[in-house]
Design a protein that fits this description.
alpha/beta, Lyase, Ornithine Decarboxylase, Chain A, domain 1, TIM Barrel, 2 domains, 9-stranded parallel beta sheet, 8-stranded mixed beta sheet, globular, PLP-binding_barrel
Length: 411
């Protein structure tokens, strides 16, 4: 079967600092559907991120909510010292596959999990003042169990603040909308950080640049400047898309150094998208092609709802290798449908240089970050296989899924 070919689509997401072109693989050489991670591209991202943390004197860690592909953690660990988690399951994944305690932030902690979270975390951030009041005695009084690994240490505790400033346009991803449950506004905090609270955490960016961070820091300092001087560490959360084309990394480095020196704090960052930005694809296959009331439809063996939910949530239109992003007059044009029975499981419309045929492979670009972590088995559809395109050009099929993966989510 052949893959349709068209003029390559350029993307503003290709960083000039990163060599994005690596030895290509054949889409026909992997199972379908399949997520395919490009190991060389991941390393290039990590090298850029490592330069930022070294030159700025900050600590950058992996956010599991954006990239939880633990088969790639050995490579990540070469550059990043830790990871942030937002559930006990993510914490365990950090412990097991990163080999470190987790930086933990959960919007609301469960009493029956908190003791284990204490034992497995190096940093714990509380989302509200009431959560701090609920757990502070247990947190402050915690001591490491006898026989704990030498590298483990008692967690440092912080609180998430809401600077009431964000440039995120989509409300679903904006933690500063009125009535947001994420973080504490200044009027709810005392003038002095209480005993046991050492850090402040904010997360108000989403795939933004360093100039957005600069304006955000101005709002943070205006409201929380007195508390910043009292803190030992500040976690700037995620959304710092430093591996994107045009991102001014030198400006970011200067900004972070100045902030760190002004307040004499350790600075942490936990990007999700930046780690795996432009590092992999989702390969799919055309299963059916037909006319529907004058519209040409192609049904795929993947699903926008189950395998690419961000395309419907954000929403955004994913790029397809060799396809025209918008319809082109006179070229074969198709509305692409997922394989579930959800009426809205479709994306359109794309044009191609040649008509699509059953069996053609389509390659969705940039489908590793915030995609793999959100997949579901709605309708019982199989999850895409996971493949690594190794730096030596070989393909490693890490995992394939079937009935047991669907059944295990149910009872």
């Amino acid at each position: 079967m052949t893959t349709p070919h068209a003029e390559p689509q350029t993307s503003s997401a290709a960083s000039p600092q990163i060599a994005l072109e690596t030895r290509p693989f054949s889409p026909e050489a992997v199972p379908s559907p399949a997520f395919v991670l490009d190991e060389a591209k991941l390393r290039a991202n990590l090298e850029l991120i490592d330069r930022v943390q070294r030159e700025a004197g900050v600590t950058i860690i992996l956010a599991l909510k954006g990239f939880s592909m633990f088969s790639a953690f050995p490579l990540v660990r070469e550059y990043l010292s830790g990871a942030t988690a937002s559930s006990l399951n993510e914490i365990k994944l950090v412990n097991e596959y990163m080999g470190v305690q987790a930086h933990t932030y959960v919007p609301a902690y469960r009493d029956d999990e908190f003791d284990e979270i204490l034992a497995r975390s190096s940093h714990i951030t509380f989302n509200s003042w009431s959560q701090w009041e609920t757990f502070k005695d247990k947190a402050i009084g915690y001591t490491l169990p006898v026989g704990t690994q030498p590298q483990a240490h008692k967690p440092s505790f912080g609180i998430r603040v809401n600077p009431q400033y964000s440039e995120v346009a989509t409300d679903m991803y904006n933690p500063c909308v009125p009535g947001s449950r994420l973080g504490v506004t200044r009027d709810k905090l005392p003038d002095q950080l209480p005993e046991g609270l050492e850090g402040l955490h904010f997360h108000t960016l989403c795939e933004n640049d360093s100039y957005t961070l600069e304006r955000t820091l101005a709002a943070l300092e205006e409201r929380f400047g007195d508390l910043l001087y009292q803190a030992n560490w500040v976690n700037m959360g995620g959304g710092h898309l430093m591996t994107r084309e045009g991102y001014d990394t030198n400006h970011l480095i200067g900004l972070l150094k100045a902030f760190r020196e002004k307040y004499n704090v350790d600075v942490l960052m936990e990007p999700g998208s930046a780690i795996a930005w432009q590092t992999g694809v989702l390969v799919s296959t055309v299963l059916d092609v037909f006319d529907s009331q004058g519209i040409e439809v192609a049904v795929l063996d993947t699903s926008f709802a189950a395998h690419m939910p961000d395309t419907l949530e954000m929403p955004y239109k994913p790029r397809i290798r060799g396809a025209y992003q918008e319809p082109v007059a006179g070229k074969p044009t198709y509305r692409l449908g997922g394989m579930t029975c959800l009426a809205g499981d479709f994306m359109g419309d794309y044009s191609f240089d040649a008509p699509l045929q059953v069996g053609d492979r389509l390659v969705f670009e940039d489908m590793i970050h915030y995609t793999m972590v959100k997949t579901s088995t709605f309708n019982g559809v199989n999850l895409p296989a996971i493949v690594i395109h190794k730096e030596d050009g070989s393909l490693q099929i890490v995992r394939q899924y079937g009935y047991d993966s669907f059944k295990d989510r149910l009872s």
